[in-house]
Amino acid sequence: KKILILNGPNINMLGIREPGVYGSQSLANIEENLNTIAETLLLELTFFQSNHEGEIIDQIHKAFGNMNGILINPAAFTHYSYAIRDAISAVNIPTVEVHLSNIHQRESFRHQSVTAPVVIGQISGFGAYSYELGLRALHNKLIEKR
Ligand code: DQA
Fold this sequence. Notes:
By secondary structure, the protein is an alpha/beta fold. The chain is built from five helices and five strands, in the order βααβαβαββα.
């Protein structure tokens, strides 16, 4: 099964960016760890990070017919991108949303996720481990669907 791992704005700065909030692992590090897990689950991962909303939407569209699942951290777009929400809805590919920080514990503008209603579920607050949990949860959904 093929999974698209999508990361939104400023996630390329992980490790440098507010380590107290987001941890010290870099995105490359997280991706490496996900690849290790993917081997055991027989998943093939494709990674994409962008600071541009439209590029993320383009990747979601490209996934249509090509990917079995999407794991996404829309980052700040989580809170206001109706366009990313609509793209996820449009392709109808099983999607899991992840966040490093617990968005409900932070500023009130982070409490709302406009993408959460169109994904299978959301994992928030476990740092880099949120991605691992998200990948395992997505895998579980995909095999249960077969
Ligand atoms: C984030 C939470 C968002 O509020 C923030 O804008 C991010 C990262 C997280 O992974 O905790 O960039 O999605």
